[in-house]
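Q: I'm building a small set of examples for a reading group on sequence design. Run inverse folding on the following structure and report the sequence directly after it, with nothing in between.
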């Protein structure tokens, strides 16, 4: 019995001695993996529109981090495939890039809310798993935009930006957004000599570039947008109403140039104005009201010309003034002769 006990003791010591290093190594591996693996916590809720939403707040994700693990407790009866909105719109978030893992896990996402989330870069890798996303919103972040960033977002219909710097945006940034319907840019910064990134977006029905201190309208870009119904350039610093803004815009319903500094309108605008389109010039130097199609019977062309005479080219005013002065001189000389 004593020999058996001694054997048992030696066996225990041997097993402990040889297994301890292995056990320590395993602990180290687990610890390293826990440190290196990013984790994102989600809270789930139903928003005011009845959409099941994954809310992400006070989280950090760096560009060099590996794909994060996502944790959270679903509402009763819900699962990952029920999520329609990913809401990262929280100033406490520090996402250098958007983690593509989120749209892999919540594969049926239709809305991405990424305002104030600390983004430093928009890349194709971040959004390549967004085939069902229809709406994306960005605000108050200073990020670069990679060429073709939204090529994986084949269902994208609405893009909204607020207080974003587009000064150095690549011309190919929006390549591949073939079905985009609404593009909104509010209080954004532009390099007006470099608005070519807007030109590939020919499918737009609504374009809003508002409160952005534009001195010149994006004429070349809008010429490639024949389906435009609403063109809103309000709250900028435009001084001149260009005919090219409405030429060949057969579907145009509203051109909003309110709160600009427009002081002249081309006379030929009356000839090319789209049927049933409205123009808002409220808050400009030349007029402060909106009006409908200028060829309607209740707004005769002659009255329109008189009404907007103060907005026509200064050259025409000078020409008219010169003609009137010459006519007065002729009358004066005639009277003297008489």
């Amino acid at each position: 019995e004593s020999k058996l006990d001694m054997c048992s003791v030696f066996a225990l010591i041997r097993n402990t001695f040889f297994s301890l290093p292995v056990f320590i190594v395993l602990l180290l591996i687990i610890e390293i993996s826990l440190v290196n693996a990013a984790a994102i916590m989600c809270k789930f809720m139903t928003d005011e529109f009845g959409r099941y939403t994954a809310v992400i707040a006070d989280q950090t994700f760096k560009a060099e981090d590996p794909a994060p693990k996502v944790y959270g407790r679903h509402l009763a009866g819900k699962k990952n495939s029920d999520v329609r909105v990913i809401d990262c719109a929280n100033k406490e978030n520090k996402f250098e890039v958007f983690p593509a893992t989120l749209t892999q896990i919540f594969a049926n996402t239709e809305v991405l809310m990424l305002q104030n989330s600390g983004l430093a870069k928009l890349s194709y890798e971040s959004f390549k798993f967004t085939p069902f996303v229809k709406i994306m919103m960005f605000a108050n972040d200073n990020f670069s935009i990679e060429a073709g960033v939204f090529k994986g977002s084949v269902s994208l219909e609405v893009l909204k930006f607020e207080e974003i710097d587009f000064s150095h945006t690549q011309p190919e940034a929006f390549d591949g957004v073939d079905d985009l319907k609404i593009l909104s840019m509010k209080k954004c910064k532009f390099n007006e000599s470099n608005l070519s990134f807007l030109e590939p977006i020919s499918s737009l029905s609504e374009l809003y570039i508002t409160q952005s201190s534009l001195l010149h309208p994006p004429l070349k870009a809008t010429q490639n947008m024949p389906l435009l119904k609403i063109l809103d350039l309000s709250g900028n610093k435009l001084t001149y109403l260009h005919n090219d803004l409405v030429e060949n815009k057969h579907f145009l319903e509203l051109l909003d140039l309110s709160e600009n500094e427009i002081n002249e309108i081309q006379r030929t605008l009356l000839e090319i104005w789209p049927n049933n389109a409205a123009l808002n010039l409220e808050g400009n130097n030349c007029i402060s009201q909106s009006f409908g199609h200028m060829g309607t019977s209740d707004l005769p062309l002659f009255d329109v010309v008189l009404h907007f005479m103060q907005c026509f080219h200064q050259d025409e005013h000078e020409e008219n003034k010169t003609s009137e002065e010459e006519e007065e001189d002729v009358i004066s000389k005639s009277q003297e002769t008489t």
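The chain has seven helices and 18 strands.
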